[in-house]
Amino acid sequence: MSSLESILKLKQHIQNHIIGQEKLVDRLLIALLADGHLLVEGAPGLAKTKAIKVLSDGIESNFHRIQFTPDLLPADLTGTEVYRPQDGSFIFQQGPLFHNLVLADEINRAPAKVQSALLEAMAERQITVGKITYPLPPLFMVMATQNPIEQEGTYPLPEAQLDRFLMHVTIDYPEAEAERQILQLVRQEAIDGITEIGNLDNIEKISQQAIFDARDDVLNLHMADNLQEYLLQLVLATRKPAAYGDDLANWSLYGASPRATIALDRCARAHAWLAQRDFVDPGDIQAIAFDVLRHRVILSYEAEADGITPDRFIQELIARIAVP
Fold it and tell me: Which domains does the chain have, with CATH numbers?
């Protein structure tokens, strides 16, 4: 089985259990293929937690969920050294970050020290405890969730950490027909007494090597030089939007970093690869631009006062930059 066939089979497995959230399923796979982390924002009950759990059930990997709370400590993520009285030594006990797939649930409820511990894991793929640094698994992805409704008792994520997320995905309620299908699926699972997702379809889990092979295929996907230039101009325009209209001149306080350029390139390639094409077209870049850029753009006070959102700003740039 080719790497593409394996990933498409995995996608079908997720879609069998996550109904009405096609965008979330797609972005999860893109993050997996682009070797990045995902920040998902949406109201409670939209299958954010279930989505990554279903993903982990389809891969030869291990999964851990961390519920972020104000009293969480860095050691609750990284692990700690445990004293052994029988020989007077210390042994390091690994924390939940030493898993392949990690769900950071309600990430903005934890204080700064916890965020810094997570940032090292996301950025450097390693954990430092005391004087010793421990590498994380080669397959490592963090999916963090935020609740946009309740902001009391939360800690806004620092810009440096936001920039480490490959994409910031916002999801909404499913359509009426999708919700009917959800109702039927959950009722049938209750009737069958199913407690484990994998029991539903007995999926043959894909190997981690298949994911690594798929990542190589994505990196080798063809992107024309003029399309690469279009991608660059889109990111550069977030820093100096005045070139595309006087009305945009004061909208952006800080534009996207070079990390956004890299993320947009990787995600556009993954988007095209999942569409079973061997080349990237402008639609791939435009489709993924909002998720890659919205958390990396800081708007001015004037723009926010006028009700301008990052998505509106990005939409204007896409409309005004010439497509090759």
Answer: 19-204 (3.40.50.300), 221-320 (1.10.8.80)
